Each structure stands twice: as structure tokens, then as C-alpha cells.
Amino acid sequence: xxxxxxxxxxxxxxxxxxxxxxxxxxxxxxxxxxxxxxxxxxxxxxxxxxxxxxxxxxxxxxxxxxxxxxxxxxxxxxxxxxxxxxxxxxxxxxxxxxxxxxxxxxxxxxxxxxxxxxxxxxxxxxxxxxxxxxxxxxxxxxxxxxxxxxxxxxxxxxxxxxxxxxxxxxxxxxxxxxxxxxxxxxxxxxxxxxxxxxxxxxxxxxxxxxxxxxxxxxxxxxxxxxxxxxxxxxxxxxxxxxxxxxxxxxxxxxxxxxxxxxxxxxxxxxxxxxxxxxxxxxxxxxxxxxxxxx
Length: 294
Known about the structure:
InterPro entries: Homeodomain-like_sf, HTH_AraC. Keywords: DNA-binding, Membrane, Transcription, Transcription regulation, Transmembrane, Transmembrane helix. By secondary structure, the protein is mainly alpha-helical. Helix content is about 70%, strand content about 0%. It has three domains: about 110 residues; about 55 residues; about 70 residues, Arc Repressor Mutant, subunit A. It is built from twelve helices and no strands. The N terminus is likely disordered.
């Protein structure tokens, strides 16, 4: 006969209990707790790429845009999720202790990142109107030749709201916007500023942030970051050929890059060679052409 005290005691969190009595609150509450980190992990994996794209659409330099923290956060969340599973499906005291240690480390890391993380939003980002209709109304008022005051201005805005879709389409203005933007880039060279950002283009274009993003995406098929990088690479190539006395650090600084390492990475991605290698190739090619002409 088997005595009662000889029978092994079942853990309340064992797999047998989970499968046998699912609707017990001791079962579905831990499972519900496990579903939360899984949901958070799925959300972070989904929007990680979107966050990077958002940074590229708003900034000309990615050096201060620390995206690595999001990958670390996703990995930490994954480790915590695994430890939660171990705690729920096991009655081992050591696993509970290990889970608490992991969670504490994660909490301290998250506190550190929040305390020292630079805000990804440009200055005055939320002060700028994000409504596309208002942006078109602003364009209508700027391009209007009529100078009205008081109630007449209000009537103009109201009329513009009703006829915006018919009278002023963004796609119809796209060539004009591109021309203004390219002239500004060539004459003022704002891309030479390290802190150059998307909202700076509002100086010459009556568009809000969302419309400016569409200008680069639809007009050039690239993000704001890629657009500015083309101008900076072109400027650096010009300096490499015309100023052989300058070193890489000076060229990176004069071209608007935030650091020589950022310049080298961007240049290699564009030309598949280092700046010095590219300069040597171009100088050799130029000497060959000069000899051929002579």
C-alpha cells in the first residue's frame, strides 16, 4: 500500500495543473501576466524599423539618434519573458530569485536610459501644426495676392477650406517645391550645418512636417537623411579633389558631417571605398586624362 505522505506533492504552477484546470484563477492570471511581455515584445519588434525611418525623415545626422537602446530593450524584454515562463512553470526558489535579479537589472537600465536619453523630437516639434489642411490654407494665404483684413481674411480662409482639394493639390505643386528646395540647398548650403533638420526647410516652403516628409519621399524617392547625405557626399568629393592639403577630419567638418567616423561610413556606403582611396583613384584618372589630352 502506498502511503499518502510518500506521494509527491504537485506544484500549483506545474504543467499538469495548467492543462487540467485552465479556468482556475491561479492558472489564467499567470498566463495573462505572461501575455503582456509577449505583446510588448511584438510591438517593439514591429515599430523598431518605423522608429529608425522616422529619425531618417527628420534628421540629417544619425549620430545623436541612439537607436541601439531599442535593440537592448527588446533583448532585455525577451530575457524577462523567458524568466517569467520559468517562474510560472516551475516551483524552484532559485528561478524566482534569478527572475527578480534580472528584472531589477532591467529596471535600473531602463531608468538610466530614460534619464540620459536625448529627446528624438526636434525643438518645437509639437508647436508646428501637423494638420495637412492647415498647411494648405497657409500656402493659399501666402500665395494670395489679395490683402484683406478683419472679416475678409476669415472669409478667405473659410473659402479656402472648401476649395482646397480642387484648387491646390500637393502633387501639382511638387515640381515647384523641388525647385525652391534645390535652389536653397545650392545657394545657402544648409546641409553644412551639423544640426540641420527637416523643420528647417519651413524657412522657404509653406509646408508642415508631414508635407515636407512627403516632398522627399514622393519627390525624390528617399528620406530626408538620404537626401542631405547626397549633398554632403558631393561636397566632400569636391573638397577631396580641390583641397588635397586637408585631412579627413577637416573635410568631414567642412562637409557637415558630425564626425570623421560618420563621414567614412557614409562615404564607403556611397562609393564602396574610403575617402583617401577615392581621392587616389580620381587623381590617377585625372593624370591619365591630362596625358591623353597632351
